[in-house]
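Dear H.,

Thanks for agreeing to be a second pair of eyes. The structure we're designing against is below in token form, covering all 116 positions.
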């Protein structure tokens, strides 16, 4: 079992930055992939970014490339999403996901609102 807790969401103006955190606990040594997803009101959940825990390799969805950075601090068992140049269309609930032994685990989400 893996438990994930997100934090760092909030209300910001367009162009500002936020950093989300995802703290993992439980069977963390079995995690091989971690990622961020988001779900805007009335829309389906979409993938944002992913990181391979063993290699640090990353990949991003096109809408966030060049603005968001995913990273992981293995010593703290925490994953981050640095979000810069935020736009109103980035408004969503952001979820942390981890894959361990082939099973997906989700956090409960943190709200990000970008509005002037």
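And this is the sequence the design step returned. I haven't edited it by hand at all.
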């Amino acid at each position: 079992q893996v438990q994930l807790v997100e934090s760092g969401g909030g209300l910001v103006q367009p162009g500002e930055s936020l950093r989300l955190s995802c703290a993992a606990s439980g069977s963390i040594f079995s995690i091989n992939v971690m990622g961020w997803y988001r779900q805007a009101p009335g829309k389906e959940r979409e993938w944002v970014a992913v990181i391979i825990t063993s290699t640090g390799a990353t990949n991003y969805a096109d809408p966030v490339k060049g603005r968001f950075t995913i990273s992981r601090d293995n010593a703290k068992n925490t994953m981050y999403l640095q979000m810069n140049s935020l736009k109103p269309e980035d408004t969503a609930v952001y979820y942390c996901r981890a894959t361990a032994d082939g099973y997906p685990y989700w956090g409960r989400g943190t709200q990000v609102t970008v509005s002037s």
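Two observations from my side: The two ends are 40 Å apart (CA to CA). The CA atoms of residues 26 and 111 lie 24 Å apart.

Warmly,
E.
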